[in-house]
Amino acid sequence: GIQVEQSPPDLILQEGANSTLRCNFSDSVNNLQWFHQNPWGQLINLFYIPSGTKQNGRLSATTVATERYSLLYISSSQTTDSGVYFCAVHGAGSYQLTFGKGTKLSVIP
Amino acid sequence: NAGVTQTPKFQVLKTGQSMTLQCAQDMNHEYMSWYRQDPGMGLRLIHYSVGAGITDQGEVPNGYNVSRSTTEDFPLRLLSAAPSQTSVYFCASSYAGQGYGYTFGSGTRLTVV
After folding, report:
1. Which of A7, A42, A43 is best to mutate for the B interface (most B CBs within 10 A)?
2. Is B90 on the interface with A (CB under 8 A)?
3. Nearest-Cα residue of chain A relative to residue B109
4. Looking at chain B from residue 1 to 30, which residues have their Cβ under 8 Å from any Cβ of chain A?
5. What is the spatial distance between Cα B19 and Cα B33, in angstroms, rounded to a whole number?
6. Is the Cβ–Cβ distance between A94 and A27 less than 8 Å?
7. Which of A72, A102, B49, B57 could bond B61 through an S-S bridge, CB–CB 3.0 to 4.6 Å?
8. Which regions of chain B are under pLDDT 70?
9. Which backbone phi and psi does A67 adopt, to 5 degrees?
10. CB B32 within 8 A of CB B49
11. Largest CA-CA distance found in chain B, in angstroms, rounded
């Protein structure tokens, strides 16, 4: 099956700093999504981004499907950005959403 | 409130007991799925359904059964609980096909002793 790798596994930021999270995948995908799991365990869909660039406030994401990677940018980080960020993909022709192991982000005041 | 509702939120089982985790959605999503989350492992797909009456296995289906008699409900059954099934379980739903509108429930924390 398709493999999804995320980096870095852990990231500690000072409040106000910017960061880039990376997601690499091993095969062609039909879509890619980014999720945020907050410290209370709730999973929130951030972006549905099979290709191109999208922005939502301080967050933006870019997927380059031909090169099999996606990037999540967080600007001017806040403590509420803390949690785990997951990348997940649907392989071509598959109904199964495969998750990476996540990047744990800690934003300190 | 629109969304995915999971019950119970917490459960402790003894080894060998059976139970059903409930999942319901009111967004008329065709696709529903169950994941388990273990430390350092991300989320792994247990079973999924692309519509009423249709289910299929995911990455880690052993020890679990599912059925989909209605569009709204997708229960997960543990047949004979084992300590290895201690985990946090998430139900999710989305529009059919490639996962647009993916929405997760709040999770069920299950401990098997």
Report:
1. A43
2. yes
3. A41
4. none
5. 18
6. no
7. B57
8. 1, 97-99
9. -105, 5
10. yes
11. 38
CA distance A34 to chain B (A): 10
Tens-digit pLDDT string for chain A (109 aa) = 899 999 999 999 999 999 999 999 999 888 899 999 999 999 999 999 999 999 999 999 999 999 999 999 999 999 999 999 999 998 877 888 899 999 999 999 9
Cβ(A72)–Cβ(A34) under 8 Å? yes
- A33 CB neighbours in chain B (<8 A) are 99, 102
Closest CA to A65 of A95, A99, A102, A24: A24
